[in-house]
Amino acid sequence: MALLTIEGLSKSFYLHRVNRWVQGCRDISFAVDPGEFVGITGRSGSGKSTILRCIWRTNLPQDGRILYESARYGTLDLARATQRQMLYLRTCELGYVSQFLSALPRQTAYDIVMRSALETYGEERRGEAERASEAMLRHFDIDENLWELYPRTFSGGEKLRLNIAAAMIKRPRLLLLDEPTASLDNASKVKVRSLIEQLKAEGTTMLGIFHDLEFMEGLCDREYNMQEGAMS
Fold this sequence. Notes:
Elements: E1 4-15, E2 20-32, E3 37-42, H1 48-56, E4 63-70, E5 74-77, H2 83-92, E6 94-97, H3 109-121, H4 126-139, H5 156-168, E7 174-178, H6 186-201, E8 205-209, H7 213-216, E9 222-227, E10 230-231
Parallel strand pairs: 3-8, 3-9, 6-7, 7-8
Antiparallel strand pairs: 1-2, 1-4, 4-5, 9-10
C-alpha cells in the first residue's frame, strides 16, 4: 500500500491586482510507496512547489484527494483534514524543507533545531535531544559561534542548512523537500546528500523537487517532470 496517493489534484490562484486566475497545478495523480524517494523536476513556475504546499496544506487544493496513511489516523485525505489533525501530522509525522527559513522571533539557531528534536525525543529525553541537535548543527557546518544568534543575520546558505537540519532531525515518516540544495555550495550539498541517503536507509519516505539533476542521480527511485502545471 502506498504511503501517499495523490488523485486529480488541482490548484489555481486568483491574482486580484490583475483580475485573473493563474494555474498552479492541474489533474496531478501519482503515488509514493513507503521508503521510496520520488523526484519532481521541471522549469520554475511549472507548479512543482504547489504540489508540496498542498500536501503540507499551506495551500488548500481546489480539486482532488491527497491520501496519506497516517500512523495515528489511518487513511486521511490531507485536502480535507482538520487543522488539529494537520498540526499533529506536522509535529509528529511529516517534515518539510523549504527554500526559506521560517522561525519564531527571538529564536536562536540552536533553539530552532532543538525544538524539532524535542518533538521527536520528548521532554523526558531532553539529554538525547540536546546531543542530537548539537550533532546535526555540526553535520551541516554551522559554527558554534552562531548557535546562540538569531538566524535573521545568517547568509542564505546558512539559513537553508539550518532549515534542513531542523526538518531532518525529526526523522519524519514523510519528508517533503523543496529545492533543498538551491543556495548551497558543493561541500554542503554533499552533507545534504549523505543525510538523505541515511534517512532513506532508515525507511523515510521522501518527495523532492530539484533543479540540480546531478544531485538527484542515484538518489531518486522514480522521477516525474512538470510542464505548465501538468505532470508527465
